[in-house]
Amino acid sequence: MSQDGQWGAPGADSAGSVIVATFPMASGVVFDWHTHDDHQLAWAVSGVLTVRTDSADWVLPPTRALWIPAGLKHETLSAGAATMRSLYLRPDQAPARWSVPVPVTVTPLLAELIGYLGTESLAAAQRGRAEALLGDLLLPVPMTTIDVRMPDDERAAEVAAALLADPADGRTLAEWGRNVGASGRTLARAFLAGTGIPFGQWRRLVRLQASLPQLAAGRAVGTVARHVGYETPSAFVAAFRRETGLTPAAYFSTARPGLGNEPASAPRGSGGRRLWS
Question: In 83-106, which positions are buried (b, 16+ CB within 10 angstroms) versus exposed (e)?
Fold first, then answer.
């Protein structure tokens, strides 16, 4: 394994078309931007992973894995201690042909199969049967990612950076303006022009984005709500549902129907959000 989490390709010396690799990750570890020649299925067997691409951040508790197509630039990080278990699949023999990132449900059976494929003592016939089963268990699941665009204006960008560092900061744009040397109206125009959405919605997305790793780690909704700036759990849940269509509990539930081996539909939405349906 390299320092950015890359693994050698399943080549001619491999017993099969799938390699399973396990990476213990201490809190704050980042596998910096990189690509793979092989498809990757990234899964947090424990803890929570975030996989970041140019267009989206995917927050993955142990109930979710992410299909990362070969050649896609990405980075992987963990806010807390985690263990990443990744499958690397030869593109010419992979059971799926998805060309975009696709979240999948990690059922107990898929989790056991990943562990089984990581067994070095498997005979060729055993490995072949297990790899054939893998394709049946890659079940796409709808999953919204909440992505935040940064404004171009330097003063608005200064406000944005401060809110990313502390989403619970409740100052108004007029109050922020006194710190950065601009009126509240000027900052409002800058946020709308630079991000495509009003400041209030932008701050809501920042707060919800900050909540995802905490929710995935199992923290109570009320605790998360206060941490990201909501006075009541009900206000937080309402905002979460408005942006994702789901409650926080449903967002990470495993009880979602599989959609077979077809990829989710193309992304839609605005403000940098990506919704798979």
Answer: bbbbbbbbbeebbbebebbbbbbb
